[in-house]
Write a structure and sequence with these properties.
This protein is α/β, with parallel strands linked by helices. Helices cover 48% and strands 11% of the residues. It folds into 2 domains: 179 residues, 3-Layer(aba) Sandwich (Rossmann fold); 198 residues, Dehydroquinate synthase-like, alpha domain (Up-down Bundle), CATH 1.20.1090.10. Helix 5 packs antiparallel against helix 6, helix 6 runs antiparallel to helix 7 and helix 6 runs parallel beside helix 10. The chain binds fe (ii) ion.
Length: 384
């Protein structure tokens, strides 16, 4: 694969990690400029917004708050947040929450520096200006949006989730404070943690993987294997929660360089057709897509099995690879994640449409096994 010998690696975000690290927020935002906190009702009710406000107040940074982001955010949500940014005369942005608020924060920053409509910037290379200072603080351990050059928008016209792709939208800092998400309900932590695992797995096996991304992705797989169950078990596992935040960020660093694979092509299409949580959709799809990809990367699947805690001694590469898929299924089962998309509201009647939309994804071309429309229909049929 000649292109593997020619690659670049970028990581513009300054990461701060550890309990209480939200107190350092003021180091990364300009004093004297009002900052818009972009969040959703979850962090507000969990007291996380109050912690961010206390950190901003301690640094003398004025602030306003937009807390109306919903899951799978649409253009109207981004426009509403941007109107608040303009009305409040803000000069910097803080994305606080899961992937949706962080992605909306990125898109508000794009509109603040470019004008127009958010749809104008979908795809790669459309963001040309520097953005206002942008910091992200994840309160789930899944998307890695604090380090990635992606922001995903739900697009009702294409029935897809379409990305803005630009290194210009990468936050200047990401604060990984496990105290903010140690009490995350298992119903949120499980699916978001599985999103991080999906990022790591899809990056690790895909055609664009490099030695740097493989190292990050494999380490992230091991961190998820050792910590996700524990982080979801109760509200006190600060160490495991901190490790999951690292896993999420490291998987984000890896897939920022490589993109993803069939799971994300499919979940973005499914999310464009139905209201389904992104991480939950990925978690359900993951074993089906891994089975499909197994024959293209058996030796890497064996390494995945090791990362997920399987004792592969005495197993052939094929046996270890199959054990990796089994370990992912067991992890889903332990986290209470359904086996079929139908249990999460996806209808079989949409398979043909979802498959067609999925095939338009840029993630198909980097998936390790060539995928046709027929393959895609079969994958959906198995998973629904
Ligand atoms: Fe994802």
């Amino acid at each position: 694969m000649p292109f593997r010998n020619l690659f670049d690696f970028r990581l513009p975000t300054c990461l701060v990690h550890g309990p209480g690290s939200i107190k350092r927020l003021g180091e990364f935002l300009p004093a004297g400029q009002k900052s818009l906190i972009v969040t959703d009702p979850g962090p507000r009710s969990a007291g996380v917004v109050d912690k961010a406000i206390a950190a901003l107040d301690a640094s003398g940074i004025p602030h306003a708050c937009f807390d109306e982001v919903l899951g799978n955010p649409s253009a109207s949500c981004v426009q509403a947040a941007h109107r608040r940014y303009t009305r409040e005369k803000c000069g910097s942005i803080l994305g606080l929450g899961g992937g949706s608020p962080m992605d909306v924060a990125k898109m508000v920053a794009v509109l603040a520096s470019h004008g127009g409509r958010v749809e104008d910037y979908l795809g790669a290379g459309k963001v040309v200006n520097d953005l206002p200072p942008l910091v992200c603080i994840p309160t789930t351990y899944g998307t890695g949006s604090e380090v990635t050059p992606f922001a995903v928008l739900n697009n009702p016209k294409t029935k897809n989730k379409d990305p803005i792709i630009s290194w210009k939208i990468v936050p200047r800092a990401g604060i990984l404070d496990p105290e903010l998400c140690v009490a995350l309900p298992a119903s949120v932590g499980g699916p978001t943690g599985m999103d991080a695992l999906t990022h790591a797995l899809e990056s690790y096996i895909n055609l664009m993987a490099t030695p740097i991304t493989e190292g990050l992705a494999l380490q992230a797989i091991g961190l998820v294997g050792r910590n996700l169950r524990l982080a979801c078990a109760n509200d006190h596992e600060l160490e495991a929660t901190g490790q999951m935040l690292l896993a999420s960020a490291m998987a984000g660093m890896a897939f920022s360089q490589t993109r993803l694979g069939n799971v994300h092509a499919m979940s973005h299409a499914a999310g464009g057709h139905f209201e389904i949580h992104h991480g939950l959709c990925n978690a359900i799809l993951l074993p089906y897509v891994l089975e499909f990809n197994l024959s293209a990367r058996p030796e890497k699947f064996a390494a995945i099995a090791g990362g997920l805690g399987v004792n592969t001694a005495g197993l052939s590469a094929r046996q270890a690879a199959e054990a990796a898929v089994g370990a992912v299924r067991q992890l889903n089962c332990d986290l209470g994640i359904p086996v079929k998309l139908g249990e999460a509201g996806v209808k079989a009647s949409a398979i043909a449409s979802m498959a067609k939309v999925a095939m338009t994804s840029g993630n198909i071309a980097v998936n390790p096994r060539r995928t046709t429309l027929k393959d895609m229909e079969r994958l959906f049929a198995a998973a629904v």
